[in-house]
Specification:
Layout (H helix, E strand, L loop, with lengths): L1 H4 L2 E6 L10 H21 L5 E3 L2 H10 L1 H13 L2 E3 L14 H19 L5 E4 L9 H7 L4 E4 L13 E5 L5 E6 L11 H16 L3 E5 L10 H14 L4 E3 L2 H11 L5 E2 L15 H28 L5 H14 L2 H4 L5 H31 L27 E7 L5 E7 L5 E3 L9 E9 L2 E11 L3 E8 L14 E3 L2 E3 L3 E5 L6 E6 L4 E2 L7 E6 L16 E4 L1 E10 L3 E10 L2 E10 L5 E9 L4 E8 L6 E6 L2 E5 L6 E2 L3 E8 L2 E9 L4 E5 L2 E8 L20 E13 L7 H9 L3 E4 L10 E2 L3 E2 L4 E8 L6 E7 L5 E7 L4 E7 L4 E6 L8 E3 L6
Parallel strand pairs: 1-2, 1-8, 1-9, 2-3, 4-5, 5-7, 6-10
Antiparallel strand pairs: 6-7, 11-16, 11-37, 12-15, 13-16, 14-15, 16-38, 17-18, 18-19, 19-20, 20-21, 22-23, 22-28, 24-25, 25-26, 26-27, 27-36, 28-35, 29-30, 29-32, 31-34, 32-33, 33-36, 34-35, 39-42, 40-41, 41-44, 42-43, 44-45
Helix pairs in contact: 2-4, 3-4, 5-11, 10-11, 10-13, 11-13
InterPro entries: Gal_mutarotase_sf_dom (IPR011013), GH38_C (IPR041147), Glyco_hydro/deAcase_b/a-brl (IPR011330), Glyco_hydro_38_C (IPR011682), Glyco_hydro_38_cen (IPR015341), Glyco_hydro_38_cen_sf (IPR037094), Glyco_hydro_38_N (IPR000602), Glyco_hydro_38_N_sf (IPR027291)
Family: Belongs to the glycosyl hydrolase 38 family.
Keywords: Glycosidase, Hydrolase, Metal-binding
Length: 823
């Protein structure tokens, strides 16, 4: 036991940033050179062991240097080349969605299994800037029982031990090790001093320690000089005391040795807090791509299952590889050079295009197969209208699709001015004339309805150019004044001078939502910050606010009222279109910002009127509560501020479609909208040749959702998805078909369970449905997929993710698998 407690495991590795201060083409070349160097070391030093992660790197070598790839396969089979980190890349570990992490495991681990016959057992993100609290469950679901990371370092987060069991909200645990003194050669007193310190640490802690060596960042790996020096050190201290090893061997020994290490249930934060908001465009493209691909998968699966449309396996896989590559921490963190983001734009563009084509093919196949024929129609002819296929006053079918796993009720903008709209049963709907995006002679008006679309399904609406209809009385119609919006649930008033929300009154709760002005655009000085925000925990040095507002009514109801607020700060212009829909307590805002500031940040501030505030936000496949002390923190689609007064709970959620950063100080929530540091500025010389990030026009949306009661019961998880995943529509004509005019694709009995993915099984034999519990409550759910004629019951633990494999054989039982689709 004594020798176990003082041993140092030397890990020869090559940290490779495929993109950072260089573009991916340079990273591609460097990976080949680094792998060649590692193979040379394996030949020259018989006891050397090499460790490397990232399936993307191996794929590059396979496609461009197949002879070297064959050598690597041989070394892996020998056990001297150790594959770790079963993900596509070393991603940012805060900002990708939960499903993106699942895809890193699915595509990364299956690649390793196919090419090398092994899967990574150790999660490996040594350079990522922080690690969200659901990581242990995601790692376990990806087939990994252990985890390696470096940041936050000791000065950023104190841990009782660098070796510990890390536990997530659902109870999953992984044995975890935090590196000290970096993943490379640089360290105080050089490599020898580093190894000596780690030996002393091992003796003090009573268990072995890992010590990493090798030239990193731009690749390189262990050098000849490294290994010669290590040989001398080992001869001095003893071959058993200092071993050339791998993370796999280290964790295997620790499990056998079973040292008394702590269990930690917390996120691993916080490093480089500026990276949560840097480079808005790529972050918005990431969110859009993630949802686009999931929608494409769902409806491509549906069209394949019902109608035999070939599933676009390769296009969707290529799109996911693009998205996963762009989630690399120096890309997603926004800290690479300007030229790199031109490549990022292309990768996201290809992913979005591939997703759009796959999605469109599926929707068109489904809509074309719906029976929309009417007895009066003999053949198709455009006699009545140059756009619509309507004959006489029979109407034109518009098919509206919902990618989400619950019924969605939402405003739907129809690209045509209409006299009336009915559902598939002929019931008339309330309509509203809204401004179109075109200015085509007098044709500049469209129509809005409130659509109600079944879960992961569709509904046909019949639209009429001339035929009018009398809809039932509208509940909670919106009233619009010059500076106010009001319905049966809420009243919002704007300050005419500043454009801030002067008052937001919740009628049902009989209380003001804010205790001051809301939606206040606050400008923060960040001259003291580098691109990453190194050494900072907060951005709160206010230097100004947008004001000098122009307020104009855009829409007058009854379905929706909208007021446009345009305000200014120096050379920047902020336009917020603030809307209220009928019978809704949510304020929806669409933003267009022309940002011209430098070394500055824009936040939108909301002082929520609660006592004893508690701040909870979404993290990948989960949520977390954090202290309201003003720190800059990462979040995903929503953040909620709630307080308890006299045994009752009240709060407000802020939902967004493309932002990832915010802070909460007391009861004031501030969402970070944009920031403009210098590209890839690590406190270098700031001369007049530098370029600033995020200059120009940005567009995004957010929603304010006040609620009485706990956030878990307020529907905000679903509302956040609805903001990010809009309804989809296809114009149709008259034709016979085998599908009905409305259909539901999935039925889930629990309001706290979301089905996030529906896709073919990678084995080609069956279907995958992935669900997760959203509220931190144990629940039972009955799940049904009508198209498969399947229904099953299951129990979910707190924040538990479940992946179900539905075999093609109807007699075979539905079974649970992990992200890799292995039991």
């Amino acid at each position: 036991m004594k020798s176990e407690g003082s041993k140092v495991h030397l890990i020869g590795n090559a940290h490779l940033d495929p993109v950072w201060l260089w573009r991916w083409q340079e990273g591609y070349a460097e990976i080949k050179a680094t792998f060649r160097s590692a193979l040379d070391r394996l030949e020259e030093f018989p006891d050397f062991v090499f460790t490397c992660a990232c399936a993307a790197y191996y794929k590059w070598v396979e496609e461009n240097a197949p002879e070297m790839f064959a050598e690597i396969r041989q070394r892996v089979a020998e056990g001297r080349w150790v594959i770790t980190g079963g993900w596509w890349i070393q991603p940012d570990c805060n900002l990708p969605s939960g499903e993106s992490f699942a895809r890193h495991g699915l595509y990364g681990q299956r690649y390793f299994l196919e090419k090398f016959g092994v899967m990574a057992r150790v999660g490996y993100n040594v350079d990522s800037f922080g690690h969200h609290g659901m990581m242990p469950q995601l790692l376990k679901q990806c087939g990994m029982d252990y985890y390696l990371f470096m940041r936050p370092e000791a000065h950023e987060k104190q841990l009782p031990s660098d070796l510990f069991w890390w536990e997530s909200e659902d109870g999953s645990r992984v044995m975890t090790f935090r590196l000290s003194d970096s993943y490379g050669n640089w360290a105080e007193n050089g490599l020898e001093g580093k190894i000596t310190r780690h030996k002393e640490r091992a003796e003090a802690d009573g268990h072995a320690y890992m010590s990493f060596y090798g030239v990193g960042n731009h690749g390189g790996g262990p050098t000849v000089a490294n290994l010669r020096l290590i040989k001398e050190i080992r001869e001095q201290h003893g071959l058993e005391a200092i071993q050339l090893s791998s993370p796999n061997r280290y964790f295997e020994e620790m499990v056998r040795f079973n040292p008394p290490v702590p269990v930690i249930k917390d996120e691993m934060q916080r490093h480089a807090v500026g990276c949560y908001s840097t480079h808005s465009e790529s972050k918005a493209s990431n969110r859009r791509s993630e949802h686009r691909l999931l929608s494409a998968e769902k409806f491509s699966s549906y069209a394949n299952l019902l109608l035999g449309l070939p599933y676009p396996t390769e296009p969707i896989k290529q799109a996911w590889e693009n998205v996963m590559f762009n989630q690399f921490h120096d890309i997603m963190g926004g800290c690479s050079i300007k030229e790199a983001f031109e490549d990022v734009r292309e990768f996201y563009g290809e992913a979005l295009s591939l997703g759009a084509k796959s999605l469109n093919a599926a929707l068109q196949k489904l809509s074309w197969s719906i029976d929309t024929m009417k007895p009066e129609v003999k053949s198709l002819s455009k006699d009545k209208d140059w756009q619509l296929w309507e004959q006489d006053d029979l109407g034109t079918p518009l098919v509206v699709f919902n990618p989400l796993s619950w019924e969605v009720v939402a405003p739907l903008h129809i690209n045509r001015k209409l006299a009336s709209v009915t559902d598939e049963s002929g019931e008339p709907l309330s309509i509203q004339e809204v401004r179109a995006s075109r200015t085509n002679a007098k044709d500049k008006w469209d129509t809005m309805i409130t659509a109600r679309i079944p879960a992961f399904g569709y509904r046909v609406y019949w639209v009429y150019r001339d035929k009018e209809a009398q809809p039932p009385a509208l509940i909670g119609a919106v009233q619009v004044e010059a500076y106010a919006l009001e319905n049966n649930k809420i009243r919002m008033e704007l300050d005419p001078e500043t454009g801030y929300i002067q008052r937001l009154f919740d009628k049902n709760a009989n209380r003001d939502v804010f205790n001051g002005s809301g939606a206040v655009p606050v400008v923060i000085n960040e001259l003291h910050s580098d691109t990453w925000g190194h050494g900072l925990s907060q951005y709160r040095d206010e230097i100004g606010r947008f004001a000098d507002a122009e307020v104009k009514v855009l829409e007058t109801g009854p379905l929706r009222g909208t007021i446009r607020v345009t305000s200014r700060y120096k050379g920047s212009v902020l336009r917020q279109d603030i809307s209220l829909s009928h019978d809704s307590s949510d304020i929806q805002v669409r933003v267009k910002l022309d940002w011209r500031e430098q070394h500055a940040m824009l936040k939108l501030a909301f002082p929520v009127n609660v006592e004893q505030p508690r701040a909870v936000s979404e993290i990948p496949y989960g949520f977390i509560e954090r202290s309201a002390v003003g720190d800059e923190v990462p979040g995903q689609q929503w953040v909620d501020i709630s307080g308890i007064e006299a045994q009752s709970t009240y709060g407000m959620a802020l939902l967004n479609d493309s932002k990832y950063s915010y802070d909460v100080l007391g009861n004031e929530l501030r969402m970070t909208v944009v920031r403009s540091p210098i590209y890839a500025d690590h406190f270098g010389e700031r001369d007049d040749h530098v370029e600033y990030m995020d200059q120009g026009v940005h567009e995004f949306a957010y929603t304010l959702s006040p609620h009485t009661g706990d956030w878990r019961d307020s529907g905000i998880v679903r509302k956040a998805y609805e903001l990010n995943v809009p309804l989809l529509q296809i114009w149709e004509t008259y034709h016979k078909g085998i599908l009905p005019q409305a259909a539901e694709g999935i039925i889930i009995s629990s309001n706290h369970v979301v089905a996030s993915a529906f896709k073919p099984a990678e084995s080609g034999d069956g279907w995958i449905v992935r669900c997760y519990e959203t509220s931190g409550r144990e629940t039972e759910a009955v799940i049904a997929v009508p198209a498969l004629k399947r229904e099953w019951s299951c129990k979910f633990g707190k924040c538990e993710i479940k992946t179900f494999l539905i075999p093609s054989d109807p007699e075979a039982a539905v079974k649970e698998v992990n992200f890799i689709e292995i039991e």
